[in-house]
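Hi D.,

Good news: the full-assembly prediction came through. Inputs first.
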Amino acid sequence: MNLDLRLNTSGDFYSQKFQTTKRDDTLILNMGPQHPSTHGVLRVLLEIDGEYILRAEPVLGYIHRMHEKMAEVMTYPQYLPNPPRTDYLHAMAWNWAHVAAVERLMDIQVPERAEYLRVITCELNRICSHLLWWGSYIMDLGASTPFMYAFHNRERIQDSLQRITGSRLTYCYYRFGGVYCDIDDKFISEIREICNWMKERAKMYKDLVTDNFILRKRVEEIGEISLETCRKYGATGPVLRGSGLAYDVRRDEPYSVYDRFDFNVPSYDNCDAMGRYLVRMDEIQESIKIIEQALDSLPEGDHIHPKAPKRPKPPAGDVYFALEGARGKIGLNLVSDGGKSPYRIKLRAPGFSNLSLFAEVAQGTMIADAVSILGSLDLVIPEIDR
Amino acid sequence: MSEENQESKPEGKQKTASDKSEKKEKTGPTYTGYDLDYFLAPQDLLKAMRKMDETGYHLEDITCLDIQEGFQLVYHLDRYHQPGRVGLRVIIPKENPKIPTISGIFPGAAWHERECYDFFGIQFKNHPNLTHLLLDAEFDEPPPLLKEDSARKDLQQICPDREYTPISADSEEFMQAIRNCSKSKNRS
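Then the structure:
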């Protein structure tokens, strides 16, 4: 065994491949996979000239679990808990994408009440996701107090969701044809209270963080992404809306009962990290609006279709279902051959497309700004690696 | 899902009715999520993608399917301003699967193509960096998503509602269809 590690400076496959360059006065720097600002196990190779980034290349796959292969060897109900585990921060949305794709292929009618329950829980989960992003992004930029506020806020939502769904993070609440169980009056009053409380908190968040001079120095005019770059890379979600285009699958490709609610799609044309920051802060308020409307008009009825199949066996076919997750457009392409397990499931992770533009955007920025840009993309690595 | 599906049915049908006969509607779902769905000949791919780029589409993802006819690559595209999903399908032979890269047109495709290389071993010609993306760099076993011979189905078995009739990327019909493609918005 060779214990003399000092001599091995050639790096691994990726850094060797990355090193091919004409200049000899630059430095190759490995950021991650254990860097705290990459939130999980993302590795970024950087070629730097002093503090400036000349080239950046994300290296993926450190938390790859082959969810798409698992789909092919499991039956439909067995695969239910898998999609929520790709994006653990907005698990409801992935859970929804899976059941809705199967429902679309089988033409299962979802009861109205179940659609409302899905909207309420999915939006609550979106708020949780944005709150966690907010807390950890601010922490990346050097402030640790807002993190505590965000988690306090998030904790209350999770406590309520836990009573109904049975979990706090990787929810598996939706079933083919409805949801796992109905909500009760206690849940409704709790959520109403939380919504009111969060509207109050929004003012504090704005005074404490959004208007903060130090934060603004770190996010304004940092990481500008043009609309054309967004399109070329297929970016969606707050990244796209922060570049000035109000595209939201909930409104532009309406699914479930979203077309019955009155909500805005916030967009800012600053194109910088501040734009993406403001979009998410506004979206929390829009989600609260949707939840309150849904609670006001919650219809009576079943929470799951009485004849919903426990072990679905969809007919042969190829369907695509897209929905708006906290990070952008989630897509699930389900191909069935009529068997008990899918022939192929393809998961479109919004973070995957959003991260792919990083290499272009990071060019010429400083390392500290790259941290800010990475954070503003709201990356969840398990979702990107799948 | 229920109501919207029924209402979007006539809309989705209209778009695809031109090149497809009516009988498939019985077997398939009322709305598949695709507003347009075309097969292309592999040599037409780049031309078609350039047209998609000009008409303002963005690439959602690239799905690969292992079927008896070969590998079916499905390029999913959508538009921000006039939403409507287009599926462009290309079938390439099983032995030595090769297809030109579209990363010159949509740079975001580079990663999706590397993913197809990971899972199916598809070779993308002129790709800037065709190395493993999600799998280990030194992974040299057979691609993990290949089907076993006994489990491999043919096109009719997995997509009974679609027929293999490639459309020419130069045709006026294709141009008209992608220009006018849109999602039904009048859902209650």
